[in-house]
Amino acid sequence: MINQINGLHHVTSIASEAQSNNDFFTKTLGLRRIKKTVNFDAPEVYHLYYGDEAGTPGTVMTYFPFPNARRGRPGTGEVGITGFAVPNGSLPYWQERLATFDVKNMQTETTFGESRLRFDGPDGDGFVLVETDDDARDPWTNNGVPADAAIRGFHSADMRLRDAGGSAELLKYMGYEEMDRQDNVTRFHVPNGNEANVIDITQVNAPSADQGAGSVHHIAFSVDNREKQLEVRKALMDTGYQVTPVIDRDYFYAIYFRTPGGVLFEVATNEPGFDRDEDTAHLGEALKLPSQHEHLRQALEEKYLEPIVD
Predict the structure, then answer these.
(1) Four-CA torsion 252, 257, 263, 269, nearest 10 degrees
(2) CA distance 112 to 155
(3) Is omega for the bond preceding 245 within 30 degrees of 0, making it cis?
(4) How far is CA 218 from CA 21, 78, 303, in A?
(5) CA gap 164, 181 in Å, rounded
(6) Alpha helix (H) ranges present in the chain?
(7) Closest Cα partner for 104 from 129, 82, 126, 87?
(8) Lateral strand order in the sheet of 198-203
């Protein structure tokens, strides 16, 4: 069994427009933009990162905003809901705030004894705020959300699967333990992991998802360093998974593999971090390009990457 996984590192999704995506996460949800860079494989498209002050693993939501991307179709074989942790008692504040920003499809619910507020992002993305009373992470408060309500980071990710069995066994192999079951949802967590240590599997009989704007592209799990990442990679490959070589993503090292349920998993290192090319006080301000794309800077800024107004 793998014992190097800490919990979530980041979640990466697809958007249809950079400015509205930036506004939603910084102005509506109050997160900090911690990096403005580009898609390694499609440098004419931004890669935007949002999180806490330093981009701590377990807090980072990232997006590829493909201009005018068609809306994805929800279904099975994907992460359907990304959960953020907020302080106990803060949901009335969030209901009022999200209504002010005309956020769609808000709905309160109680799941596994937790008070939750579900809502949609700009492209129909599925989100939930989950009240917690024991999250010690420091929030980012410079975008107008007070500390007693601000998002602490991820709480969970919910995978929608037609058959939960194979993915449940994979999570257990990755060090997750089954916590509880409620109706068609099974909850797993990493004991002694980071605060973003919950994965839910919702088993539903539905068509496969069709990825597009509003879809989660992949979820990434945190390991401390490259040594532990290589241990995870070997263990997965020894079990029969097809795992990519280690890829340098500038701010972390990544490996990828596809789960039995169809969801793309990444295992990402906590090193070197988002301050490797910007000091913490100025994260997310300048356009940072991977070295292999630096020669494209003028063309990218003049022809492809529309300026983002903060």
Answers:
(1) -20
(2) 13
(3) no
(4) 18, 8, 28
(5) 12
(6) 18-23, 91-100, 165-173, 226-238, 297-299
(7) 126
(8) 107-111, 114-120, 126-132, 78-87, 153-161, 198-203, 185-189, 177-182
Q: How much is the pTM?
A: 0.97
DSSP code per residue over 153-174: EEEEEEEEES--HHHHHHHHHT
The one-letter code for the residue type at 90 is S
- For 84-102, what is each residue's pLDDT tens digit? 999 999 999 999 999 999 9
Provide the pairing of β-strand 107-111 with 114-120: antiparallel
Instruction: Output phi, psi for 18, to 5 deg.
Output: -70, -45
pLDDT band, very low/low/confident/very high, at 209 (cuts 50, 70, 90): very high
Percent of residues in the chain assigned helix, strand, coil, to nearest 5? 20, 35, 45
For tokens 């990162």, the residue is 49
